[in-house]
Write a structure and sequence with these properties.
Immunoglobulin-like, 2 helices, globular
């Protein structure tokens, strides 16, 4: 045997002895924690993450539960699989928060040996996330998920053919419309799971142009608008409807769509939505907003009360609806909110307002309002109105930029908005995406240009 071979053999024998000694020591000294894992998002652990702890040997379940601590405290459920503990908090953890897991030395193995040493490890949860439709560069016509800190990821198809989307009320699904190819009609409807990132095409019609897809609150149906629809009526030849969009209702499970035909007068609408109470929202000749059950039998009209109004959206409870328009005594550009007792002009005294959005709590509403002029160009900023105090304050007030299309985070801590320059760009539908705290601090750009901002966590 050569000198080199003897040296290699000696090293191997030495390693084997070391491993044996360590294993024996471990057996005498007790079990240890091999690893701890959490589900990761863009910028930290998911607020819905289970906490997975792997031990080096089978453990006494009750002793581990007594010794397990999560700081700050969170109540949860314990499950076991072999040597693995899974702790699932009952409620989502706090955003952007540091948590520490501690398992004390009182935890024992199934053989009665206590933990070799106290285990301690920390993790930081994700910040809030929003979604937008990119309009420039590599993000153009793609769905992008972004964190408050500016981390980003393209979600769904990366072919740049998405034109419109919305998020389900429970924020687990996204429904979007897209083209199958660059020159084709927008004739496909897809679902994107925000849980696992999977996608599924649920509808296509070669001749139609599809817009404004919305999921029902139970995620069983999608309502959308379609143009270039071939309609057939008794005594008349079939013809493509060129007068405006037609409302269709799609069943997610069967992938079948049928025209929505309510019991009252026919829809005459350029928007469609689902209310939080699962009513289809649209307009007809009778009112500012019409709400109908999915079967079209139960119909409710929201009166315009001599106002000229365009629907903008509901609050999350469905108690309030926002409109942009004019009253008999105004020149237009008012934000009016309808409640059971009538309309409230929340932008009274503000010239030219648009793009209202309710806070998640429903206690405030943000909108873009006229703040002045830069030369001959109007400057717009984000205003916030409180339904509790009935006061308005300016959230943004940059004299060289215009801000519009606000969107509230799920906990109302942040407001995302679109910023543009020159000011007329706000009417083009997209701009630079910014995020600011709802108290006016910490405004910053996410470094992307897009539109249709919607918070997903």
């Amino acid at each position: 045997m050569s000198r080199l071979n003897r040296l290699v053999l000696a090293v191997i024998v030495g390693l084997a002895l070391t491993i044996g000694v360590l294993s024996a020591a471990s057996a005498r000294l007790g079990p240890t924690v091999d690893s701890m894992n959490t589900v990761q998002e863009l910028d930290g652990a998911s607020v819905n993450t289970p906490i997975q702890v792997n031990f080096t040997e089978p453990m006494n379940v009750s002793s581990v539960r007594r010794s397990f601590r999560l700081t700050p405290r969170a109540v949860g459920q314990y499950t076991w699989s072999g040597n693995q503990l899974l702790f699932q908090p009952r409620k989502p953890l706090a955003y952007s928060h540091r948590y520490t897991v501690t398992i004390g030395s009182g935890a024992a193995s199934a053989k009665g040996k206590t933990l070799f040493r106290t285990f301690r490890a920390s993790f930081t949860t994700q910040s809030q996330h929003l979604m937008y439709l990119g309009t420039e560069g590599d993000e153009r016509n793609r769905l992008v998920m972004a964190s408050v800190d500016g981390e980003k990821r393209v979600m769904g198809p990366d072919d740049g053919l998405i034109t419109d989307y919305s998020v389900s009320q429970d924020r687990t699904l996204v429904v979007f419309a897209k083209r199958p190819s660059p020159r084709a009609h927008v004739n496909e409807i897809w679902l994107l799971s925000l849980v696992d990132g999977s996608t599924q095409r649920i509808f296509t019609h070669a001749d139609w142009d599809i817009s404004e897809p919305h999921l029902s609150p139970d995620d069983r149906s999608v309502v959308f608008l379609a143009t270039n629809v071939l309609l057939c009526q008794p005594y008349y030849p079939c013809a493509r409807d060129k007068t405006g969009p037609v409302i269709f209702l799609l069943t997610v499970r069967s992938h079948k769509a049928k025209q929505f035909q309510p019991r009252s007068s026919a829809p005459l609408t350029y928007f469609i939505d689902f209310s939080p109470a699962a009513q289809i929202a649209y307009t007809d000749l009778s009112s500012a907003l019409t709400l109908a059950s999915i079967d079209g039998q139960s119909v409710t009209h929201v009166p315009n009360l001599n106002n000229s109004l365009e629907y903008s959206g509901f609050d999350e409870s469905g108690d309030k609806a926002a409109f942009v328009g004019s009253t008999p005594s105004s020149s237009g550009g008012d934000i009016l909110v309808y409640r059971s007792k009538g309309y409230v002009d929340v932008s009274r005294g503000v010239y030219d307002s648009s793009t209202p959005a309710f806070s998640s709590s429903g206690q405030q509403i943000a909108y873009s309002g006229y703040h002045g002029e830069l030369g001959i160009e109007p400057v717009y900023g984000i205003n916030m109105y409180s339904f509790t105090t009935h006061h308005t304050r300016r959230l943004t007030n940059d004299r060289a930029w215009s801000d519009w299309a606000p969107s509230w985070s799920t906990d109302d801590r942040y407001v995302a908005f679109v910023r543009s320059q020159p000011q007329e760009a706000m009417y083009m539908g997209s701009g630079e995406i910014w995020v600011i705290r709802s108290d006016g601090r910490g405004g910053h750009s996410l470094g992307s240009v897009g539109k249709s901002l919607r918070w997903i966590s």
